[in-house]
Amino acid sequence: MKMTKKLSGILAAVSTPFGADGQVDEGRLRDHVDFLIDNGLHGLVPCGSTGEFAALTVEERKRVNEIVIAQAAGRVPVAPQTGSTRTAEAVELSQHAAAAGADAVLVVQPFYEAPTRREVIEYFATVGEAAGIPVIAYNLPGVTGMNLIDARGTTVSRSARAKGSSFTSSVKAAWRGSSSAGVGPSTASRCARERRGR
């Protein structure tokens, strides 16, 4: 696996600007990347929910990732969101991000089709084995219908250890308790308690 910059601090979800013609506005995207870095953000996450990945074509997602990685120019780590409802697409996007110079990828599990926990583990294992860079499992239960942390506090990565694949070394972390990268453990715990009605 390719060694990358350490991810820490606040990773900003990068919005995707569009022009009046409905196309990605590359100039404004580059300006936005500079603005985020110049204002002290520690890393960038393009093509997440804020980046409207679900409204972009695969080619647009690739291009947005290329622009953000190139514009960041190594000043901060970049971890594009490369998850998809299709495993093959998530693999394609993850490999493309790695080739473009991403430091890691943030991967949301398939949504809408409601895969089983075992299928979600296989999905992350497949993406992790193919990506060649660290994979961050994006815990977004409100959208995916499944919390990656079960009632026992076991994350998908812990559950997959028995699989014996490179999954456990490829998947570096799971977002805990919240869909927001900027939420700390105490806030995430409070949010989880509120969801459980405590």
Layout of secondary structure:
Blueprint: E1 11-13, H1 26-38, E2 43-45, H2 58-72, H3 87-100, E3 105-108, H4 117-131, E4 135-138, H5 141-144, H6 156-159, H7 167-170, E5 171-174, H8 185-196
Parallel strand pairs: 1-2, 3-4, 4-5
Helix pairs in contact: 1-2, 2-3, 3-4
Note down, in words, how this protein is organized.
The chain has helices spanning 26-38, 58-72, 87-100, 117-131, 141-144, 156-159, 167-170, 185-196, and strands at 11-13, 43-45, 105-108, 135-138, 171-174. It has 198 residues and is mainly alpha-helical. The protein has a single domain (11-196), classed as Aldolase class I (TIM Barrel). A three-stranded parallel beta sheet has the order 3-4-5. Helix 4 links the parallel strand 3 (105-108) and strand 4 (135-138). Helix 2 runs parallel beside helix 3. It is globular, with a radius of gyration of 16 Å. Residues 158-198 have low confidence and may be disordered.
